[in-house]
Structure formats: C-alpha cells, structure tokens
Amino acid sequence: MCVKCGRMVDNASAVALGYIHQYLIVDSDELARLRDKDLKSLLGKKKLYLVLDLDHTLLNSTHFHHISPDEEYLKSQIDSLHDLPNGNLFKLDSMRMFTKLRPFVRTFLKEASNMFEMYVYTMGERPYAMEMARLLDPGKIYFDSRVISQADCTQKHQKGLDVVLGAESAVIILDDMEYVWGQHKENLILVDRYHYFASSGRSFNLNNRSISELKRDESEPDGALATILEVLKLIHHLFFDLERGDDIMRRDVRQVLKTVRSEVLRGCKLFSGLYGMICARIPTHPPGRPKFVGVGFRGDFEKVLNLVRIFLSYLGLFLNHTGNNNIFIIAQEYLYEKDISLVLTIKRPLLERIARCTGAQIVPSIDHLSSQNPGYCEAIKVEKFFEEHGSAG
C-alpha cells in the first residue's frame, strides 16, 4: 500500500513495514525521504536510534517443561501480570513460558529513552515479540509500534536495518549475536549474553549451573546493562559534541563507535580528564607480552567508576562473544597483542573482578611491582601512591 495515495504497489525495491501496518509497503524513494525527514527531527531533539534485541539481551525465557529441579522454587516467586512495572519474573500461561527480565533493564530503558528512539528487533515470532514488549514497556512509552519480529525480516536468518525507519548513520544496535547482523556490524555493540535459566545455557553448550539454580542474578549497578548504558552515554556525548563544528546531518555514529572501540584500549586518550588510568609496559615481561596489572590505591572512586564499566564492556565488545568458553584467556591474549597494561584506581571488589576476567596480577601497592617505573599515559601525570591491602593476590 502506497503511503501517499493508499494504492497497492508492486515494486521489487519497496520495503514491507508490516510491524507498522499489516499491508504497509513503502517505495525505496519514499522510504529515503521519510528517513531523512525523521532524522532531521530526531537530531533536533538530540536523539539517535537504538535497536534492541530481546532474548539474552534484555531478558531470558524458558518453556515450562524446561525448568530444572533446582529451578522449581521459582514457581513461588512469580510476579503478577497485573503489576508489570514492578515485576521481573513472569509466568505466561498462553505461551507456557517463564520470562525473567534482566536486572537494571527498566532503568536502562528509562535513561536510554532520553537519548534514543528505540526499536525492539527479535528473530522470535510476532506474538512473542509483542508479549515481551508489553512486559518491558507496559505503558508503550518506549517502543510504541516499533516492534520488529521474524516475519518482518527481508532475509532468512538475518536482521537488517532496511526495515527500520531510521538512517543507518544514526543507528546503534545492541545484540548478543553478531552473525545475524552481517551487513551492519559497524552499528553493532555486542552484549554479554544473559543466561538466567538452565535451559538457556544448555542451548549454548554451557554445562555449568545457571544463576537461577544458584539463586543468584546479575548485579543491578554493575551488570551488563549498566555497563552498556555508560557506553551509550559516551557515544551520544561524542556524537553531539558541539565543538566538532561540522554539519550534524553528515555525522555518522558508526565512526564514533569505531573511534571509541579503538581508543578505549589503546591509550586512554578519550579519558584524559579522568584521574588515575595508566597505560604501561612492564619491562620484566618478554617483549610483546606485557601483563595486565591492577594496583589498588586511594583515589576518587566515583570518578573512575564509569571508566571501569566502559572498559569491562569493551573487553566483551572486542572479543565478539561467540560462545567461546575460554573468554578470559582470549581477553588476556587480546591485551597482549595490543601491547597494553592498565593500572586503575579502583576499590578492591571491582579490582578483583577485573583480575578474574583478565588473569591480572593484583599487588598491594606500586612498590610491589617489579619495576619502579611502570610507565604512564602521556595525557596523565602519574604519581606514586599506595594503600595496604594485605598480601599480593
């Protein structure tokens, strides 16, 4: 159906937008015009587009018959479908399914909505997509009709931005699967998969006990979505940076994302105003094989908290989560290849988390390093401080 006159059209270059209206088909020229018009309006509001995957990104679902014996306790912790905004674990009888929302997701959506016009894009069927969107956005204030499902895809087993009413130059994608975005990897931020239910992990050949079986969950303040939110804030800030002085309509968020990817781990140039990040070579290690070293000492914790979140996120981003169980080894190898070591001012719990993820050496103070001159980033002057934390771990 033509959006101008209402007549049915037959055009190989036209795009079906069934998620907006069942019979809506837009000619390629008209689609380009609509995108340009919408982009001008959105940029005027200082917003970009954010395309969000559902499963393993914002939530996790499992069928009733896949619940393990150690997950039976969940049946007594179901939240009411009559109070969606305050719930996080739901029983969907019509689909014979349990759905668990990822921790921090409601805060994530609320804050992201100030920076982005958001779409849901899932390879699931439309009834499932609509039900998940209802759980996430019961008031329809974030997604409205922008819920794209499997039937809307123009290529089998692939997601594409051709059905999104947003210019590719202004779209960021969050998804746990890279291969489904074959033509749009430059727009993609990979998200660490959320495996709450045991069946979810098994589908990716993970045999360890699930976090639901362990009666645990991701951290709200330090989990994946909180981390990604900080990355999105950074990208949004850089895209709309007034000091750039160029035509905002000609800016490309893919270039911003590329810059952030390359700079976050390469020399902390983007963070020169943040106190306490040091890029260093450790001379006693073999050439080209520096270690990832974290030193705990006094510093302004709040100033570096966002930096740590961004760093942890980009460890995952660079590794391209493909189900590899040796992710921590790969992380260390990546840092080796980049000839990078980092020292962060950080409290002990997060320092230990970074150490576990990277095979780091934790020392009580700079005095315990094998070199008295660990090096520095040119943008940051390094002084020598220490705080006792007990023996080196």
From TrEMBL:
Q: Identify the InterPro entries for this entry.
A: Fcp1, FCP1_dom, FCP1_euk, GroEL-like_apical_dom_sf, HAD-like_sf, HAD_sf
An example of a Gene Ontology cellular component annotation for this protein is:
nucleus
Q: Which reaction does it catalyse?
A: O-phospho-L-seryl-[protein] + H2O = L-seryl-[protein] + phosphate; O-phospho-L-threonyl-[protein] + H2O = L-threonyl-[protein] + phosphate
Give the UniProt keywords, A-Z: Hydrolase, Nucleus
| Entry EC no(s) | 3.1.3.16
The record's GO molecular-function terms, alphabetically, read:
RNA polymerase II CTD heptapeptide repeat phosphatase activity
Principal localization reads nucleus
The protein's matches in SMART domains, at most eight in alphabetical order, are given as: CPDc
Start and end of every FCP1 homology domain?
43-217
Where is it located?
Nucleus
- Biological role: This promotes the activity of RNA polymerase II.
Alphabetical list of NCBIfam families matching this protein: FCP1_euk (TIGR02250)
The name under which this protein is listed is RNA polymerase II C-terminal domain phosphatase-like
Organism, scientific name: Papaver somniferum (Opium poppy)
